[in-house]
Amino acid sequence: MKQCSIENKKLINRISRIEGQIKALKKNLQNELECKEDSNPYEIIRQLSAVKGAINGMINSYVEHYAKEHIVKGIQSSKDEADAMAVMDSLVDIMKSFGK
């Protein structure tokens, strides 16, 4: 379980960085409410893309951690093939929901 603790700390650090990106994005959007002539719409799009990429990366990291720490152990401790397949089905369900 120590590995889970380490991975969760890494994920919390990632969330903190994403939170900083979102705060900066919010500040830029609030500044754009004033409709300044020198506002740059590409900066907002760049920030949105960065947040999207960071969230997708975090999802990938979490799914990888979950698969390595929980799915593998679930398969190893399965009593038969049907139990192992049920564990794999849970991973497939996660991947399907992420792909939407």
What's the short version?
The chain has 100 residues and is mainly alpha-helical. The chain contains 3 helices and no strands.
Salient structural properties:
100 residues, mainly alpha, elongated, Methane Monooxygenase Hydroxylase, Chain G, domain 1, 3 helices
Structural class: mainly alpha
CATH topology: Methane Monooxygenase Hydroxylase, Chain G, domain 1
Count up the domains: 1
Specify the overall morphology. Answer: elongated
For the record, what CATH class applies? Mainly Alpha
Tell me the helix content: over 70%
Number of beta-strand segments: 0
Mean pLDDT across all amino acids? 84
CATH homologous superfamily identity: Metal-sensitive repressor, helix protomer
User: What pattern of helices and strands is seen along the backbone?
Assistant: HHH
- First CA to last CA: what distance? 31 Å
Q: Number of DSSP helices?
A: 3
Task: List low-pLDDT spans.
Answer: none
> From the alpha-carbon coordinates, what is the Rg to the nearest angstrom?
20 Å
* Beta fraction: under 5%
Q: Return the CATH architecture.
A: Up-down Bundle
Summarize the main sheet: none
Textual characterization of the structure:
This protein has about 100 residues and is mostly helical. The protein has a single domain (about 1-100), classed as Up-down Bundle (Methane Monooxygenase Hydroxylase, Chain G, domain 1). It is about 85% helix and about 0% strand. Helix 1 (about 1-30) packs antiparallel against helix 2 and helix 2 packs antiparallel against helix 3 (about 80-100). The radius of gyration is 20 Å and the shape is elongated. The two termini are about 30 Å apart.
